[in-house]
Amino acid sequence: MTEIAPASRPRIAAVDIARGIAIVAMVIYHFSWDLAFLGFVDFDPTQSLPWIVFQKSIVGTFIFLTGVSLVLGHGAGIRWPAFWRRFAIILGAALLVTAGTYAFYAETFVYFGVLHAIALFSLLGLAFLRSPLALVIVSAIAIILLPLFVQEPLFGEKLWSWIGLWDVPPPTEDLVPIFPWFGVALAGIAAARLALASGFATRLAEIQGTTSPARFLARLGRWSLVIYVLHQPIMIGVLMGISSLTGVSEANRANNFLASCEATCGQSAPDQSYCTAYCACTLDRIEGDSLWAMLEAPERTPDQDATLQDLANQCAAQVLDERLLAPN
User: What pLDDT is attached to residue 181?
Assistant: First the structure.
């Protein structure tokens, strides 16, 4: 997502293709997330292990290629005007993502996502372009592995979460902290330096990728930053329009709530008819008082919890009263 190739070195098509594959995969993941978020499907990719692995591999690819591109663009000497120009573009795009996600869903907005990480890692990575290769490799391994051994509650707070090393991650839709992800960028720097030193990069540059799919993916790779910034607003805007016209997501959200509520209720109240009436009452109150945002918020205030608890108590009392007054 951050390649800056000097004019004297031809672009390596394989790098563009790899970046193109990653951006296609990211669009697929975000589309599945949008479908789940808007209630079109009864499925949460953030809770499915295969999809979590898929998402992490996409992020890892972009971060790894950040290190590779840094070496290709500046390994022979840092070109400061080009570097700062690209840094400003990426940082500006990251701030747009922050502003857009905050406006869309403030509770879990993106404050240090992929683009923020790429900007910071590009800056930090400059110190490793001419460092001893052994130091780069050891640093990469240490940064990747440290979160397995160090977890502190302090780093679970938003103010410090961009560092990593938390015991419980804070609520946000995208968080790419220094530990372990800067280690992945360093791995990309080490791999690119090894490839250049061994001549592998020269052989890799000979692969032109002349087939139509390869050329298409390479083109996507060269425009990956633009695609990254624009694809989510476009997709979620279209899906929200479809949702408002069809009412599909509202119906699915209500059905999912009823199924979850009745399953939870059935664990403490074996009378299925009671659970059905109680959950129907609760759903009516939530929809009538427009409480979906409060109910689905990743974090709630004590007052909000009290409001939801009062609602549940009122429905429980209402259903019990109706059953007592009903003829035998």
Answer: 98
Handedness of CA 169, 170, 171, 172 (dihedral sign): negative
DSSP string across 28-76: HHHHHHHHHHTTSSS--GGG-HHHHHHHHHHHHHHHHHHHHHHHHHHTT
Query: To which residue do tokens 């019990």 refer?
Result: 320
CA–CA distance, 133 with 127 (Å, rounded to integer): 12
Query: Which residues of the chain register pLDDT less than 50?
Result: 1-8
Encoding tokens for residue 187?
């791995």
Query: The tokens of 138 are what?
Result: 């050891």
Q: Which residues pair with 175 in a beta bridge?
A: 112
Give tens-digit pLDDT for 289-310. Answer: 888 888 877 778 888 888 989 9
CB 253 within 8 Å of CB 51:
no
Cβ pair 3, 16 in contact under 8 A:
yes
Cβ-based neighbours of 195, under 8 Å, separated by 6 or more: 201, 204
Distance in angstroms (rounded) separating the CA atoms of residues 225 and 229: 6
Residue linked to tokens 């009671």: 274
Structure tokens at 135: 């130091």
Please tell me the predicted confidence (pLDDT) of residue 4. 39
pLDDT of residue 328: 56
Per residue in 184-202, pLDDT (tens digit) is: 999 999 999 999 999 999 8
Question: What per-residue confidence (pLDDT) applies to 10?
Answer: 57
Q: Are 173 and 167 in contact (CB under 8 A)?
A: no
Pairwise CA distance, residues 138 & 186, whole Å? 9
**CB of 133 closer than 8 Å to CB of 67:** no
Separation of alpha carbons 249 and 41, rounded Å: 8
Q: Identify each DSSP E strand in the chain by its residue range.
A: none
